[in-house]
Model the fold of this input.
Amino acid sequence: MEAFNKKLILEDGSEYLGYGFGADKEAVCEIVFNTSMAGYQEIISDPSYTDQAIVMSYPLIGNYGITDEDFESKMLNLGALIVREVNDYPSNFRFTRTLSELMEESDVPGVYGVDTRKLVRTIRDKGSMKVLITDISVSTEEGLEKLKATELRRDQVKRCSCRKRWYSRTSNHKYNVVAIDCGMKMNIVRELNAHGCNVTVVPYNTEASEIIAMNPDGVFVSNGPGDPEDVPEVIETLKALKDKLPLFGICLGHQLIALSYGAKTYKLKFGHRGGNHPVKDLATGKIEITSQNHSYAVDEESLKGTGLEVSHINLLDGTVEGLSSEDGRVFSVQYHPESAPGPQDSKYLFDRFISNLS
Done:
């Protein structure tokens, strides 16, 4: 058997051995896990994973390759990818390159051959933590020193937001929507276009006065990486917009809307990541199977007196999954209704947003 050439060293001192693929480099990241059974390309190209090392709980990754149509952003921003088995001989007729080739081109390191079942349990039991992806020759003591000396960055939204506004138009449009890009997935823009909206995508730090001057019918606040409290620019913009235009927020956008109303957020032990989280719509009683990717949640107690009420809850841990203002013109969800890679239970939320634009 070939000797291991890569090592993961976690903050708790545990080590996991494997083999390198993708870029051959050392990296320090926050380690998280994802429980999705499909959609690895959409996952690794989702800007919400900026600087994070993703552990895939599904054991076989790369088996259908990489296709040009399925990217959620133009660049890979994740810190690393950790899998049990990587398949670099895909049989999908649509594939244009392999997962390893994409990661090497994008300067993203990967490790395979790892006991991902044990690693996921470690993260679940002890919480997300820093990890060093390094050469097998690095000692545990040396690795822990590197982890201790490395501060994780907190400017992820600034780095993955667009630099200037851009447009995505559709034929016979009915509405004009401004989308605040905090690290937005491309399928959100595609969904808005499919619902008859011309979309103007603006950088995260665009001021409310500039957005109002565009005369939009509504404003969308995107998903994105990191701690919502690290993006005060968006919070201030939303404070100025909430009584003037319909708002719809997803994931980080949901948390930012809550903060703009005076609520609070907190970091979850290991977050929610995967396409199999059950969420209950409190208005209808229906259960949606949702796709999620976040480390933070809205504190339910802090919502008192803000003018927002809980609309959806997570049935696994009871956390807040949706919010709505009293008149319904401002609402948000913690999960991803744009459904890339799926499931598609929650696309009705785009219809709800469209109804507010009339």
